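Reviewers asked in the last cycle whether our approach scales beyond single polypeptides. To address this, we selected a multi-component target totalling 899 residues and predicted its structure end to end. The input consisted of the following lines:
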Amino acid sequence: MSDAPILVVGGGPAGTSAAATLAEAGLPVLLVEQRDQLGGAIHRQVARGATHAVHAPARHRRNWAELAQRVDAAGSRIELCTGTVFLGVDGDGRHLLDDRESGRVVARSVRAAVIAVGAVEKIHPFEGWDLPGVMTAGGAQVLLKETGVPPTGPILVAGTGPLLLAVSAQLAKAGNPPVAVLERGRPWVRFNSLLRMAWAGPQLGEAASYVATLLSHRVPYRTGADILSVREDDVGLEIRVRRNGTVHRLRARHMLVHDGIEPNRVGIPLSDPGGAVPVVLAGDGREVLGADAAILDGRRAAREILARLGMRLPEPGEARLTAARNVQAALSDLFRSALPEPTPETLICRCEARRLSDFRSLPDDASTREIRLMGRFGMGVCQGRFCGPTIAALRGEAVPSAIPPRWPLRPVSLAALADLKTDDLES
Amino acid sequence: MMTRIFWNDYVVPFRPGETIAAALGRAGIINLGPAGGPARGRVFCGIGACQACVVAIEGGAPVEACLTLARDGLRIGSMPAVVVSDE
Amino acid sequence: MARPSSMHVAVVGAGIVGAAAAHFLAAAGARVTVLDASGPAAGATGASDGAVSVASKRPGPMMELARHARAFYGQLETEGLFTGLFHRRSTFLIAQNALEAELVSQHGADLALAGERVIEVARADLVQRIPGLGDGVTAALEIPDDGHALGYQITARLLQRSDIDVRRRAPVSEIMVRDGRAVGVALTDEILSADAVLVAAGIGSAHLLNLGDILIPRKGQMIVTDRASTGRPAIDGHLMAASYLAAKRGIALDRSHIGLVIDPLVTGQFLLGGSREDNRSDHRTDAVTVSAILRAALELYPPLGARRVVRTFAGVRTASRDGLPIIGRHPHVEGLVIATGFEGDGICLGPFMGESAARMILDRPPAADLSMLTPTRFARGGSSA
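The resulting structure, written as structure tokens, was:
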């Protein structure tokens, strides 16, 4: 199997960095990306044929240009499969790929795997979060980067964290500033955290430029704001917000929500650098450290694989990963806030339409299996990626909890899976 | 160059290279239906994870609107509603 | 035996059989503690299709018992216990070639002989009822009196009584026996005393009762699709391919270890199954087996081509060496009853068998002759207990 490639899943900064590093060491790489272009969420490229581009920080543009150049330079050592979804590893160790363009599911023999599938946004549920018109801030940002065009109509941005600022500033620059940004936390009052942030360098500079953009577009940034509920009528969304004990009603056509991110770990094979086919996680899918650190972490993952194959590479800069960890810790401290208790009617699991009251009707000591079978939480098409953190919080468990690997990691065309192709390395 | 897809009875133009989600969004189609269900379709996470933007496709299995590039003449529609059983 | 009102019964295993026994013991006035290494429906009960089906049973005692068991579902539904959980649903036995047609026809005759209603359905009529059926389908029999229930929902309903103490994450390591009587069970850091013990722990019964050479794990891989319809089954009946019958009757139609069923769920999803893999007790699924099940399913019902697979999972059935369930008193230990080895029939048989086990513990006469299922049959010619 020594001519089998190293599989790298995810064409974001971590995966691209791992792929380039492995290829530069002379190994064949199979780089799989679900979209038609490399980039991932942070470095999402504008769609071919789009007429507008969105502003991205210079640092991100520079980083991506360098990564893209390295992938180009690797030439045929990197086999790039775009439009291909990683379905996971089956019970016999097959790495399964869903090639959406050809409509085929393929089992590929690989020598090792780096899994760099990024993060998923957390959403603290409130009544109406499931309505059309509500989307994640990160999702809206990705769409904006692709099209260069913001959604039309009034936009409200709510939740917590620095992404709210970034998305809002980009929307403003693209021509549709939000009607307001509602931050649950109170970052201004956490001076200690702010001081610790001071040496975060480029991130702090970017945050300042976002704030300046919002100021110049007169976008109100309100802290300590809890979203209570959203309902829809003929003209859009009505959002109830509680701030300093007073309930306000706001109107918007679109509502962008975001409560931080979690590694996308549901069903992902466990990191097993010592296995017969070594598997290493990389980037925000391993630990949320941000886009810059993801490039380093991709290199770290590649180094781990190379070490297993008896090849050595210089240390990738653990100190900078530690620094990134400190920045993330300071950020989460800066934006720390208490989550409001959802009402019993609040939808927790959108896929299976299950509410908080459904969860509460389960026995207090319900097993994980009962929560799935009787509660139906985690049984839907998103496989628990969105209700999972909420359920874990309700049960007082850590996230991500130990979730056994599973496949398919995504719903897959039944006909394509029926027509499974195994590559010629498998007898 | 403009080409088009069909969302239920609507004609939706798109630019080559654009996803179904981008085309629907630009046409102002936010509600991916079905009407009246407790959890209607809508573009949500933008990265294929939440599966809320899955649309039915004529002649094949459903796809995520946020991952799938629009193709000229493609006919798409809402997925069946999720109904809570009567227990 | 003690009077029910002063009796404490330890039920080992919170699957459908243990839950049913617990329910009826509690209803008779006994104090019941249900112990499970994980929780309710954690084993085969929660990893199965929902066929409450006589149509699939081997001719002979299993077919007879399945008729009793299905009637018991109907009775409990009428009485209110299973309201909303058990539904009448036809099973269609489907043949796709001459050999299969012969098998289906033979099976239909056996069912009719057992008193079951069997309706021959012409292809044209079948296609009208289940539009899109594959071109290869030549003949079908409808078994109109079959039903559907989800094992985990039934189990939860049975355990809902407030007088049943359900202990989750409570693995039993040993049955305590004194002077030839079961006196309790050993948990991780406690001995729970009891006047009687029921072991209904599926394959977990093997180590508790030293049945390792009698019980065989048989893994089955299954697939769940996305929704094809809104809030109701996508097709009007349970499709059972001749390959499934062949597997049940111990006939080798081909070299495949797949017996195909297409089970339309009330959610609008399909459950597709399954493989029969002897001596496999892991819960892994593999793409080669799954794709083989899907190919068979697509051939029988091509509209599945418009569906997505959302989940694969495996359940481990517990089969006995002679293919029959094991239910009865332990040959050498008083106050110890065994109920296991229901293979793939646990959902159908479970409530009836659990109630029968409760009767055995309470020293009451059974509702049907279960003598051929007694564990004693394995004890003849050399005991291992």
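The first strand of chain C starts at residue 8 and ends at 12. We regard this as preliminary and will revisit it once experimental data from Aim 1 are available.
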